[in-house]
Design brief:
alpha/beta; 7 strands; 7-stranded parallel sheet; SDR_fam; SDR family NAD(P)-dependent oxidoreductase; 260 residues; Sc_DH/Rdtase_CS; globular; 10 helices
Length: 260
Amino acid sequence: MAKFAIITGASTGIGFELATLAAKDGYDILVVADEPLVDAAAEDFKQFGTNVSSVEADLSTIEGVDSLLAAAEGRQIDLLCANAGHGLGHGFLDQSVADWRHVIDTNITGTLYLLHKVLPAMVARNDGKVLVTGSIAGFIPGSFQAVYNGSKAFVDNFTDALRNEIKDADGVTLTTLMPGPVETEFFARGDMLDTSVGANPNKSDPADVAKDGWDALMDGKASIVSGWKNKIQAAVANVTPAAVLAEQHRKMAEPGSAND
């Protein structure tokens, strides 16, 4: 029987590319996103000859995660790509409570709940692979993207801690993928197309980012910063004062900065 993988946020972008790689590698896959487009994506993944199923679910809710897991129909989960995430631009004080809560509930609460449900079985049998999509944004105080960057700082930090907690289950690997800006629908959905970072034509290709993450996952690496420019930025962030980083981020993410 083929191994079984779940990929979240798989309708577009990095998640779509991760699902493609999983199917190409012979995994039966269950893909999920919070939009009907995931069903069309699933049809695309079937070209590789494995069993593909899809579910539309809001992974910012406990009920949404539960519906995803129910769709697995009790099958052993050999691989999980916890990739679903949501961005949000503009100043924090200008954002609605519903909008910033959705970011936190998707990026943090839903991700943690999914890990909490999937990892115990992996640890018990000492076998399984998990990829969590963090971000180099987690290293940088995100002026005009404060909630998103803060949520990714949580994810980056949390996965480091969890990796240590489960280290005795050495057959289970937990890899954190940390890309920089990627050419996806992220910036449109986060209302950031008028920002310098949103309008930048030199963002990473999601296929390249997914391949970096997939290779690191297969190698059992703890984490991977995708892209050499992002590796430099991540290294510099560790030795740069927070106030300087925040001002630099402001120049990228402040509404209207695309015209500066």
